[in-house]
């Protein structure tokens, strides 16, 4: 079976048809820049452009980098504030002329990793309460989180906005923070370790999965996280996880 996944980000909007059983892209993804206005209507047009590129007519799932409850955007830390309170699922359904499922970007990425990536080995019966939740963190423009308790998603957790040493965590330890603050891998690794130990103190996880495009360079920073007691593994679907997860959610009966 196939469905189409679109990942809306602060800089780019990317999409591809997805082979659901394999959890892989059926074609090279197509990406357009996020419209400069960042406004819902303009972004919806860009999503339409991505879908039209493939002439796709089937089910569609879309991710958004903010809290999404019942299709309504509740927060937009790195997007235009006009999104907040909008039924973006309805807007996209109108623009694309077919039902669209909308979900938080990190939740989508986490669902994909749990089924097809780094979390799949734990998604087995018998691995239960004592082993603690699996926590997927996406390190990109912001920090997104997806928590799985007994492999069931707790949606819309916002661990990227935990306060750590007086700072919003994503301003300290996202991939963008590394660039904006001009940090070496070592300096950024110290911040990431500080953040992960804070999350560890709060949740006693059984596993951390680190995603986002930066997960391709995991060999540069995983060795710097020796102070984290929880096992830390890189995401396996890297930057495709959001697209795959969106497509997986699209296919669920509405
Ligand atoms: C948002 C989250 C999102 C994350 C990654 C954060 O700023 O609040 O909802 O998952 O960025 O895009």
Characterise this structure.
The chain has 254 residues and is an alpha/beta fold. It has 2 domains: 2-104 and 241-251, 2-Layer Sandwich (Nucleotidyltransferase, domain 5), CATH 3.30.420; 118-236, Nucleotidyltransferase, domain 5, CATH 3.30.420.40. It is built from 8 helices and 15 strands. It has helices spanning 40-53, 88-96, 105-116, 169-173, 175-180, 185-203, 218-221, 241-251; strands spanning 2-8, 12-19, 24-25, 30-33, 60-64, 68-69, 72-73, 100-104, 134-139, 143-149, 152-154, 163-164, 167-168, 207-211, 232-234. Strands 1, 2, 3, 4, 5 and 8 form a 6-stranded mixed β-sheet that branches. A 5-stranded mixed β-sheet has the order 11-10-9-14-15. Strand 14, helix 7 and strand 15 (232-234) form a beta-alpha-beta unit. Helix 1 (40-53) packs across helix 2 (88-96). The protein is globular and about 50 Å long. It starts with a strand and ends with a helix. The mean pLDDT is 94. The site of beta-D-glucopyranose (BGC) has 17 residues, from helix 3. Residues 65-67, 75, 77-78, 104-106, 138, 140, 142, 144, 158, 160-161, 170 line the site of beta-D-glucopyranose.
């Amino acid at each position: 079976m196939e469905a189409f996944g679109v990942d809306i980000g602060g800089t780019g909007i990317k999409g591809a048809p997805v082979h659901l059983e394999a959890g892989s892209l059926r074609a090279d993804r197509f990406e357009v820049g996020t419209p400069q206005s960042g406004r819902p209507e303009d972004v919806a047009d860009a999503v339409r452009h991505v879908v039209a590129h493939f002439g796709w007519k089937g089910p569609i799932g879309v991710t958004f980098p903010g809290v999404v409850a019942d299709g309504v955007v509740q927060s937009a830390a790195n997007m235009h504030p006009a999104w907040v309170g909008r039924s973006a699922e309805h807007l996209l359904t109108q623009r694309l002329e077919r039902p669209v499922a909308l979900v938080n970007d990190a939740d989508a990425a986490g669902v994909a990793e749990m089924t097809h990536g780094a979390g799949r080995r734990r998604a087995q019966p018998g691995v239960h309460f004592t082993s603690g939740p699996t926590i997927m963190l996406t390190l990109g423009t912001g920090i997104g989180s997806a928590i799985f308790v007994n492999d069931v998603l707790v949606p819309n957790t916002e661990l990227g906005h935990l306060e750590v040493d007086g700072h919003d965590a994503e301003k300290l330890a996202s991939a963008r923070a590394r660039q904006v603050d001009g940090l070496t891998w070592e300096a950024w690794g110290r911040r990431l370790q500080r953040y992960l130990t804070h999350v560890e103190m709060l949740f006693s996880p059984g596993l951390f999965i680190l995603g986002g495009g930066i997960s391709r360079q995991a060999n540069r920073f995983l060795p710097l996280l020796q102070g984290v007691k929880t096992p830390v593994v890189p995401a396996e679907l890297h930057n495709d996880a959001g697209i795959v997860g969106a497509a997986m959610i699209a296919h669920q009966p509405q």
